[in-house]
Amino acid sequence: MINGGKRKFFLHSLTSKQSIENDGGGGVTDNDDYWFRVLNLCNQNNPSHFGIEFPSRLFYDFKYLDSGTYSHVIKANGLEYNRTPIVFKIIKVVQKNTLNHFLSFSFNGFELYSDVFQEIVISKALSALHNITCDPHGYEYQTHCFPKIFATKIVHGSIPNYFIIRKYDETNPKAKPVERFEDLRGVPREHLVILMKFCGDSLWQLIKHRHRISPKGVIIGITPEQALSVCYQVTIALAVAESIYQFEHRDLHICNILVKRTKKKVITFVLRSIPYKVKSFGVKACIIDATFSRVCLGPDDQTIFYTDLSNRLKGTASNPNPIDGQELAYQQMYNKVIDKWKDWFPETNIYWCKYFYNEVLCSDSFAMDCSDSVKRDLKNLIATIDNYRTLVEFVQNLFYSNSSSKSSTAVT
After folding, report:
1. Does 113 share its domain with 247?
2. Cα–Cα distance between 219 and 162 in angstroms, integer?
3. Which pLDDT does position 365 carry in this prediction?
4. Same domain as 264, residue 189
5. How high is the mean pLDDT of the chain?
6. What is the helix (H) or strand (E) element at residue 405, kind and residue range?
7. 290 and 350 part of one domain
8. Total structural domains in the chain?
9. 233 shares its domain with 286
10. What is the pLDDT of residues 304-330, one digit of tens each?
11. Which residues face 149 on adjacent strands?
């Protein structure tokens, strides 16, 4: 029995509390019952206050990490989480009827409740894979390469000042001063807070540098072996989610892969009740940002969650000469799906993985001091992945081939 001591989760555990419907964001009504659905997912009857849900006495060493169009990401250590590093993803949200009343005002940087509802559902489904999870046929699945969600809460009012946003490079003498949350203006006064385990640093930042140790003893970059291990880890993690959830990431650019150091020699996965192991070389990968993702959590259309990307990608798809690999991946995905974003197209995971492999191959991590075997293994991934429709098939064949030849650097 695989990991018999672990708690098992079943797919219906994410959808059994309510009847879930989703039309991909195209048919939300003005009364916006997604506000109630989000509160239900967060186990709340009404929005709470930030200081009540996340009091400063329970966290320390706050550090600003990043900001996006809709959210800010803050790192801290949590006393209630064994002092482990955790991350707050803070998203400004607004109800649709509120938005309709303020159309004459200019404000941005927010999401609708219909959008964050989907993100919560998908994020919690992927988080559940940290435990052994069973599909309706009894097959078991597990991966630790998606964020582990500790809590999701809707809070309103001013956000306490112990959360700081640094939008500018503090090493730059011309940089503007630090902005506190209370200084940010805009109509929405409610926020979705997703509390999750810290997943690491951006792979994009790590592969920009050759691996070395600074005079102060700081490790910079990652080795070619570590980069190859990340490629295998990401591929198998996606295959696990693809198999149990019909998961498509649909936005796996290099910034959506995080890496952190680990003492574990091997990263283990369970795919259709079969364990797969990858040598870590001291690093562990994590796939983030399910904003554009697609999953199916049950037998009917009401448990399919997705985002219609037709309008977002129409311009990119019409470009006859993609400017880079990321744009090519968007274009391939658009041309495959066309307007059927609710349907399952596992080929999109193939497109994104091939783009990701090429980014690693062309990075500074592989520019120097890369052994022939490591480069050969990565080039083999690039050369063979197009032969498969699903990552599940690709992974199964990859491990079968490597177990026969014993030639892989990272696969055990």
Report:
1. no
2. 29
3. 81
4. no
5. 84
6. helix 391-405
7. yes
8. 2
9. yes
10. 999 999 998 988 888 888 889 999 999
11. 196
CATH number (domain holding residue 407): 1.10.510.10
Residue 13 lies in a domain: no
- pTM (2 d.p.): 0.86
Is residue 2 in a domain? no
Confidence of residue 68 (pLDDT cuts 50, 70, 90): confident
Pairing of strands 190-197, 59-67: unpaired
Cα–Cα distance measured from residue 335 to residue 331, given in angstroms and rounded to the nearest whole number: 6
Q: Give the model confidence (pLDDT) of 325-355 as tens digits.
A: 999 999 999 999 999 999 999 999 999 999 9
Triad 100, 102, 108: Cα angle to 5°:
100
Please give the residue range of the domain that contains residue 28: 21-137+148-198
Whichever domain contains 93, its CATH number is 3.30.200.20
377 C-beta neighbours (distance < 10 Å), count: 22
- Which residue spans within 100-233 are E strands per DSSP? 111-112, 132-134, 140-141, 149-156, 164-165, 179-180, 190-197, 201-202, 212-213, 219-220
- Calculate the CA dihedral of residues 21, 26, 29, 35 and round it to 10 degrees: 60
The residue type at 92: K
**Residue 1 predicted with pLDDT over 70:** no
Q: Are residues 166 and 237 in the same domain?
A: no
